[in-house]
């Protein structure tokens, strides 16, 4: 067994194997100003991962980021949900808040101390995820032993207004990454889970599942919905249907 395989096997199980992953990305302001709504969304059991993100961290946001992380941990604990809580980038905040894991940016893959960072997280039995926008980055993340890889950008999204339609990586990147990683891994059990992100909603998430995603990550289509709880449940139903349909199609090819 290779060291990267051992790293992944020693990490905690990311999510329920029987269903596709639904990750909800939230900002500190969402947590601090929409806490009641977010609490009901978490309690709906539709969400598998709550990921605290901050697009442009500055010193003035550090306190709110810390507060939001600790608040999210309390909310998830209170509801006794099986949802995992992941913090973007900030290892110190993740550890101090009792988060289940840390999500790294793609550029972190090139850091000289990334191996040490992942080792420190492993010692605490924490999950490690990473964003990628290319096959090469996905292979690098795989070799580092991450548990899941967030692949994007799938579709047009306000989160990346600079990306015109011709600049989007799209579902085809998922397929290319899956193919490459299958060639790298000794068994499917040693593959990190692939999570599609970028403009995901109930009308297009099936494209991501068909392209090889194990789940999707969403932002506005849930948290900015008129009824976020119903939106979360709608995404869960759509994901379950997409996974079932995809599994049926795979079986029919045998």
UniProtKB/TrEMBL annotation:
Keywords attached to this Swiss-Prot or TrEMBL record, sorted alphabetically, are:
Thiamine biosynthesis
Pathway per its UniProt entry is: Cofactor biosynthesis; thiamine diphosphate biosynthesis
Q: Which GO terms describe its molecular function?
A: thiamine-phosphate diphosphorylase activity
One cellular-component annotation, GO:
cytoplasm
Gene3D superfamilies according to UniProt: Aldolase class I (3.20.20.70)
The residues forming the signal peptide are none
Q: Does the keyword Signal apply?
A: no
For the biological process aspect of GO, one term held by this record is:
thiamine biosynthetic process
Q: Which InterPro entries match?
A: Aldolase_TIM (IPR013785), ThiamineP_synth_sf (IPR036206), ThiamineP_synth_TenI (IPR022998)
Instruction: Tell me which residues make up the Thiamine phosphate synthase/TenI domain.
Output: 32-222
> By its UniProt entry, which CDD domains does this protein fall under?
TMP_TenI (cd00564)
The protein's name: Thiamine phosphate synthase/TenI domain-containing protein
């Amino acid at each position: 067994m290779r060291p990267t395989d051992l790293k992944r096997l020693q990490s905690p199980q990311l999510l329920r194997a029987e269903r596709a992953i639904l990750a909800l990305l939230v900002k500190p302001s969402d947590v601090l100003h929409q806490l009641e709504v977010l609490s009901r969304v978490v309690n709906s059991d539709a969400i598998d991962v709550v990921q605290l993100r901050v697009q442009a961290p500055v010193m003035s946001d550090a306190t709110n980021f810390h507060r939001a992380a600790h608040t999210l941990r309390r909310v998830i604990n209170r509801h006794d949900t099986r949802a995992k809580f992941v913090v973007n980038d900030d290892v110190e905040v993740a550890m101090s808040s009792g988060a289940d894991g840390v999500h790294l940016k793609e550029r972190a893959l090139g850091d000289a101390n990334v191996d040490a960072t992942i080792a420190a997280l492993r010692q605490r039995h924490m999950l490690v995820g990473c964003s990628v926008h290319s096959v090469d980055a996905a292979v690098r993340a795989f070799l580092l032993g991450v548990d899941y890889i967030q692949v994007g950008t799938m579709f047009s999204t306000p989160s990346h207004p600079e990306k015109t339609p011709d600049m989007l990586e799209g579902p085809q990147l998922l397929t290319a990454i899956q193919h490459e990683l299958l060639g790298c891994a000794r068994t499917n059990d040693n593959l990190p889970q692939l999570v599609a992100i970028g403009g995901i909603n109930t009308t297009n998430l099936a494209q991501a599942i068909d392209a090889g995603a194990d789940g999707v990550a969403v932002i506005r289509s849930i948290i900015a919905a008129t009824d976020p709880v119903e939106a979360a449940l709608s995404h869960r139903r759509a994901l379950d249907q997409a996974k079932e349909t995809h599994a049926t199609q795979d079986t029919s090819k045998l």
